[in-house]
Every structure is written in structure tokens, then in C-alpha cells.
Amino acid sequence: MSNTQPAADASERTSLKARKVSFDWEETPLHWVPGEPFSTHMINTIHMLLPAGERWFIHVYRQILPYIHDDQLREDVIGFIGQEAVHSQAHDDVLPHLKKLGLDPTPYTAQIDWFFEKLLGDRTLPPGRARKWWLMERVAIIAAIEHYTAFLGDWILNAEALDRHGADPTMLDLMRWHGAEEVEHRSVAFDVFMHVDGGYRRRVRTWAVAFTALVFLWQRGTRFLMENDPSLLDGKASFSQLRAGGRKGTLPTTAAMARSIPTYLSRTYHPSQEASTAQAVAYLAHSPAALAAEARMPGKS
Ligand SMILES: [Fe+2]
Ligand SMILES: [Fe+2]
What we know:
By secondary structure, this protein is mainly α. The chain has one domain (32-296). Helices cover 66% and strands 0% of the residues. It contains 13 helices and no strands. Helix 1 (37-64) packs antiparallel against helix 2 (71-92). The longest helix is centred in the middle third of the chain and has 30 residues, at 129-158. It is globular, with a radius of gyration of 19 Å. The protein starts with 36 loop residues before the first helix and ends in a 5-residue tail after the last helix. One fe (ii) ion (FE2) binds next to helix 2 and helix 7. It holds the Pfam family Metal_hydrol.
């Protein structure tokens, strides 16, 4: 099967830097989208999924660096690793706050740690073809996942309904800072995949793996949070609540999620064709957490 090289939009490129943000969760309520526990917990699942997931990205990318023979892409990968390391830590820091509010995420995060560290870990493979095959599979899985992190980043930057619903400003800033950096670096994982392999069959196969895993883990995480939320009498998660969140604008619509599938599987797809770097950079220029991180940088006072 041919390996088409899709066109990247050069104007969407930006140089990547990690912003060492931190957040104070003291004032953030459990239902930080007021009156919307399902939307809150659907988004809260990110805090439980991404720390292990992004640590795994970094683990795999450290192994792929020797296969990258393009200085620009190498620089992008190093910037990507720096950003994902801060994302992972920032979401991890929310978990003790959830526990303090009576919702201990540990039973679920233990499963996620197993998923990324064991199931998607290095495995005991002999050096050579098998080991390289597994590395390339994982690089392709990361490209597919990053299609969805960019999709969600673009969504949250534009989710004005969350502001209208009075969503907690600190949590909104965490989600939008992260979303903006996902939009900033949305091409890196795909470019890495195209550079080291780029096979269309592999793209389709690993998309199916990533999509199935994301749907499975996300619904499981949301169900876990709804069922263990101490403020809900009989917390349940359902597909109809997902659709309702989409209609209200407190979650992405199921139609937009469905449209993202053929987008990724198109042979002419390149992530730079989706979302807007200018919008992401504009958000980061006034994000309270990003500004505070910048002020803390050495040399600034
Ligand atoms: Fe991230
Ligand atoms: Fe990312």
C-alpha cells in the first residue's frame, strides 16, 4: 500500500517550550462545572488518564529519538517531551484534591498505570525486528491519541458554554493551558510517525487500537467517578448524558467526535489542517497559569 506524504501547513508551526505551571486547588469545588456532574467527571477523567499516558509518551519518545534524522523534528520532539512532562504533573496534582473532596481516584489510576506500564510497556522482546515493530506500533498509537488530544484542545479553547455555566476558572485555565499546548504541538506525533514509518495500514490499525482503548477507558473512568461521587445519591454515567452535554456545549458533540474519525483516516490528513495555532498562542499569552510560570522563570522578577 502506498505511503502518501500529506501536506503540512507551515504557517501553523511554532517552536515548542514547556511552561512550568502550577495551580492552587483550594477553592475548586468537586463539581467545577456547576450543576453538571456528568460533564465535570467526563472531563475529570483526563486527570486520571493522562498522567500515566503522557509519561508513557515520553518513555516511548526517548526510545525513538535515535531514529530521527531531521534536526527540526528532533527539536520538536524535545519540546513535545518537555510539554508533556508538565501536563502529566499538572493533572497528577489534581488527584489529591479529588481525594480530599471524598473521591479517591486510586482504584482507577492503578488500572491505568498497569495499562500503560505493563500492557503498552517495553515487553521482553529480543533486540531486532520484533522490538522495532513494537516501538513503531507504539509511535503510531501515540500519533492517533494525539489526534484526539488536539481535538479536545481545540474544543476546550472554544467551549464558551463552560464559561456561561460558571465553570471554575482555575480548572478551566488548567484545561485550556493544556489544550492550547496540545494544539501547539499537534503535528509532532504525526510527523514522527511519518518520519520513522508512515505506513497507511499501520495508521489505520493503530487508530483502531487507540480509539477502542480511549472509548473503553474514558467511559470506565467517567462511570467510576459518577458511581463514587459522595455528593450523588445514585451516580450513573450514560450515553444520553454524553449527548446532552454535547447539546449544552459542556462536552464535545458526538457528531464532532464521529467526524474526527474519517479526518484522521484520510490519506491527505495532516494535523496542521485542524485547529489554530494562533488561537492557542493567544490563549497562552493571557493564561493566568502560563503568565505566572513565565514570571517565575530565571531572569524575570
Ligand atoms: Fe499533553
Ligand atoms: Fe500532546
